[in-house]
Write a structure and sequence with these properties.
6-stranded mixed beta sheet, binds inosinic acid, 184 residues, alpha/beta, 3-stranded antiparallel beta sheet, binds magnesium ion, Rossmann fold
Length: 184
């Protein structure tokens, strides 16, 4: 017998067991690729990446530290690339091995911008890991080194992802009903 879905959720796109298994695979891949590295700095993009980062980091064996950044987008009318840093790192990343951890790549603007900003700070290496990428042909081509899942172009929530700051802590990735965002 299954637990009834939240009434705002149309369907479960990725269930808990599938998320857990894929996160473990990503961690194993990262451990292999960073074997011998003395310290990896994981940079989570708030708020969406907090659950993914927490689960991923706890599966890693490579020694690592965690930090966070937060960005805000200038909204729908903004020109492309108009992303602003609202919370920056506490420490310089020069000479460090850095991995940017994102929840989802949609237009690609956020990841492209953050990659550009971090690359300019002189890290020893810079890679990106995103749990989800939306299938959007017009999206910017951004360098994604580790990818959990490619998903259709629908609005998803749960496992850190939100709609207007709601539904972030659902344990699965679910598709939001259209009626929820059309009434807003
Ligand atoms: P981009 O800059 O268009 O690639 O958008 C990336 C950011 O938009 C992500 O970090 C998310 O915070 C947010 N986002 C994009 N699509 C979704 C979604 O389907 N659900 C929740 N957040 C989303
Ligand atoms: Mg978000």
């Amino acid at each position: 017998m299954s637990i009834p879905l939240h009434p705002d959720i149309e369907r479960v796109l990725i269930d808990e067991a599938t998320l857990r298994a894929r996160v473990a695979e990503l961690a194993a891949q990262i451990d292999r690729d960073y074997a011998g590295v003395d310290r990896l700095l994981l940079i989570g993009v708030l708020k969406g990446a907090f659950i993914f980062l927490a689960d991923l980091a706890r599966q890693l064996h490579v020694p690592h530290a965690v930090d966070f950044m937060a960005v805000s987008s200038y909204g729908m009318a903004a020109v492309s690339g108009a992303v602003r840093i609202v919370l920056d790192l506490r420490e310089p990343i020069e000479g460090k091995h850095v991995m940017l951890v994102e929840d989802i790549v949609d237009s690609g603007k956020t990841l492209a911008y953050l990659h550009h900003v971090l690359a300019s700070r002189g890290p020893a290496s810079l890679r990106t890991c995103t749990l989800l990428r939306k299938e959007r042909p017009e999206a910017l081509s951004v360098p994604i080194d580790y990818l959990g899942f490619t998903i259709p172009d629908v609005w998803v929530v749960g496992y850190g992802l939100d709609y207007a700051d709601t539904h972030r802590t659902l344990p699965y990735i679910g598709v939001l009903k259209r009626s929820v965002y059309q009434r807003a």
